[in-house]
């Protein structure tokens, strides 16, 4: 197979000679990039029945999605995975019996309900390929009506017009790394192209006269905003064009004022009113981010959430006076999130989660000031009141920086000390949070301490923290991965014994796992990586085009940052790999190609290190089907029980 110079350079950086590189089969992404023989060879093996039962019990715990209230507020439509695959359900009042409205094997999500109450707007994906299509379904049920679903194309819903005539969507069907904006007429089932520009464009809001508020992504985080009116050839720039900042915006009113969430003027995100280039702050200056916001259809109330170090709190302002309005208080809630709002603004769907109870929906009535629980989670055969509560703790990085981590501990450890599993989140611009976690509890039930660090590069701690790992700067903070193990080994022992420590994660967390096992060999005693990057250069060459253009600011530019990217690739340090490694991958993954997993496994095999690879032929970037989730986490649990339990290690000086 013939490779571009970039891929060949990366393969050579892995320690392969030219002949080995020429024999490699890694090019592209998705199931077509891997042979049937490879899929058959690495098909996940069945679990021991008793282990499978333990894991299945946890994955039988399911909470409903946030949901959308019908225009008459008499029904709530939501997603639920009670069948093992995400589908759409309906409940006709508080604590009523839910009715399933979509089915099949493909994941289906609810995007909106048309304002006239006639149709559900749905998105459906196939086998985790992340190329969804848009469908309509009569609100009373029945067959789905396709709006657009094309192979290899992302068709993504934007909004329904206020008169319920049109559905607006975006799709990369013309250029793989750019999104064209379309309008679909429901009555005639005809589609027209509105705007076709280079780049990752999307519609974030609209006005009644057809004016569109457009966002263009400049990277993984930075954005800029434009306004388009019918008849315009080119959108009019508003803000963000000269900044390298994140902006999220919605129209504040019909006069063209905009409500903007940004950290442009400080370390943390705040809400501002923007008009004619001027910003006026409307939320307090906090040492936490305003993490999300919304307005009701009449733009009478502003809802916003604050991320308080991994706990979500929600607030409301009167849009006219900007004075705070009271929301209900929920005792012991770790996270309270504002979901959908009724069209008349009277009702707000509040999503409430505690450490010991999955998310439930409460509908709050502004007129009466009362709220009612509409949905409850499903927890068959599991007493969730016994779940471990996450404790917010810290460990020191080698430069003295305090790294936050959520820690969940078993009630007791016999024998002591408990083995530890350190889980690194994806993103990397994401965040591990407090709240309910079946994955964490699965390991706690098995006698492990489960740790969720928020290393530098995580969101929620200010933009300096968030951007600390951008591109080559990751070289300065990647040591946060090793420092977690150093602290645990030095401080969580019992007597003269140190704990055994495992490392795991998915996506960027999978990459962190592979770095922990190679560059920081010896820090962890075993590692389990899911959909993790093994070489930054081959990843950038083979990831989906729409992903590539948004990842350069995060991982580096192969043309400018090649040396740093090689240093930051796990395969570069393969000679240091010494401890057991489990690798999990979805064949349909458009983000992290399946070839990243295969090349890491083959490199580990050449080192004669105990390594295992599992490839799910019907999954993408992570497992979505219940049976596959049971297999993935069952094998991970079995892997860590084998390699972390038993005799503990004597303390090291």
Query: What's the name of the CATH homologous superfamily of the domain at 5-57 and 387-646?
Result: Alpha/Beta hydrolase fold, catalytic domain
Q: Provide the CATH architecture of the domain at 5-57 and 387-646.
A: 3-Layer(aba) Sandwich
Q: What would the average pLDDT be, to the nearest integer?
A: 93
Question: How many helices does DSSP assign?
Answer: 14
Return the CATH class of the domain at 5-57 and 387-646: Alpha Beta
Overall shape: it is globular
What share of residues is helical?
Answer: 10-25%
User: Poorly predicted ranges (pLDDT <50, ≥5 residues)?
Assistant: 1-24
Considering the chains and any ligands shown, give keywords for the structure:
disordered N terminus; 6-blade_b-propeller_TolB-like; alpha+beta; single chain; 4-stranded antiparallel sheet; Rossmann fold; 8-stranded mixed sheet; signal; 653 residues; 38 strands
């Amino acid at each position: 197979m013939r490779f571009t110079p970039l891929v060949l350079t990366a393969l050579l950086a892995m320690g392969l000679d030219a002949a080995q590189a020429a024999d490699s089969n890694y090019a592209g992404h998705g199931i077509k990039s891997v042979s049937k023989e490879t899929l058959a060879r690495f098909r996940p093996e069945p679990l021991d029945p008793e282990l499978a039962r333990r894991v299945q019990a946890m994955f039988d715990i399911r909470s409903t999605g946030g949901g959308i209230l019908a225009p008459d507020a008499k029904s709530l439509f939501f997603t639920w995975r009670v069948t093992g695959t995400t589908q759409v359900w309906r409940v006709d009042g508080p604590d009523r019996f839910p009715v399933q409205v979509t089915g099949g094997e493909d994941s289906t999500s609810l995007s909106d309900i048309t304002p006239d109450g006639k149709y559900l707007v749905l998105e459906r994906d196939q086998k985790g390929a992340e190329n969804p299509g848009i469908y309509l379904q009569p609100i009373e049920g029945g067959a789905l009506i396709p709006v657009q679903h094309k192979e290899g194309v992302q068709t993504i819903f934007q909004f329904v017009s206020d008169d319920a005539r049109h559905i607006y969507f975006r799709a990369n069907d013309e250029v793989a790394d750019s999104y064209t904006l379309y309008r679909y007429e429901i009555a005639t089932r005809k589609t027209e192209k509105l705007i076709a520009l280079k780049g990752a464009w999307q519609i974030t809001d609209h006005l009644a006269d057809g004016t569109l508020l457009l966002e263009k992504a400049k990277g993984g985080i930075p954005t800029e905003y434009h306004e388009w009116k019918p008849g315009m050839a080119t959108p009019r720039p508003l803000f963000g064009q000269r900044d390298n900042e994140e902006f999220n915006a919605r129209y504040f009113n019909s006069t063209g004022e905009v409500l903007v969430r940004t950290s442009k003027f400080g370390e943390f995100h705040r809400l501002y009113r923007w008009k004619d280039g001027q910003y006026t702050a409307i939320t307090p200056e906090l040492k936490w981010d305003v993490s999300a916001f919304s307005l009701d259809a009449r733009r009478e109330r502003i809802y916003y959430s604050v991320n308080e170090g991994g706990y979500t709190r929600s607030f409301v302002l009167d849009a006219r006076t900007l004075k705070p309005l009271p929301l209900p208080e929920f005792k012991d809630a770790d996270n309270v999130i504002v979901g959908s709002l009724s069209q008349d603004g009277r009702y707000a769907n509040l999503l409430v989660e505690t450490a010991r109870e999955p998310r439930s929906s409460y509908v709050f009535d502004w007129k009466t000031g009362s709220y009612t629980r509409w949905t409850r989670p499903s927890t068959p055969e599991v007493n969730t009141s016994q779940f471990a509560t996450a404790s917010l703790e810290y460990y020191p990085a080698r430069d003295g920086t305090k790294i936050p981590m959520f820690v969940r501990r078993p009630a007791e450890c016999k024998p002591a000390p408990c083995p530890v599993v350190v889980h690194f989140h994806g993103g990397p611009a994401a965040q591990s949070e407090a709240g309910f976690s079946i994955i964490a509890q699965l390991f706690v039930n098995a006698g492990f301490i489960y740790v969720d660090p928020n290393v530098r590069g995580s969101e929620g701690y200010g933009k300096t923290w968030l951007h600390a790992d951008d591109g080559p700067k990751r070289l300065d903070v990647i040591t946060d991965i090793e420092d977690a193990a150093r602290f645990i080994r030095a401080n969580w022992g019992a007597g003269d014994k140190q704990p055994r420590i495992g490392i795991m994660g998915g996506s960027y967390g999978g990459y962190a796992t592979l770095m922990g096992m190679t560059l920081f060999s010896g820090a962890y005693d075993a590692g389990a990586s899911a959909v993790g990057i093994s070489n930054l250069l081959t990843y950038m060459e083979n990831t989906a085009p729409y992903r590539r253009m948004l990842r350069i600011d995060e991982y580096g530019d192969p043309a400018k940052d090649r040396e740093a990217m090689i240093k930051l690739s796990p395969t570069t340090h393969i000679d240091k790999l010494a401890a057991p490694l489990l690798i999990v991958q979805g064949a349909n993954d458009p983000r992290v190609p399946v070839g990243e997993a295969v090349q890491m496994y083959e490199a580990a095999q050449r080192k004669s290190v105990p390594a295992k690879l599992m490839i799910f032929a019907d999954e993408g970037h992570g497992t979505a089907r219940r049976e596959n989730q049971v297999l993935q986490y069952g094998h991970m649990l079995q892997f860590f029980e084998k390699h972390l339990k038993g005799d503990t290690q004597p303390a090291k000086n």
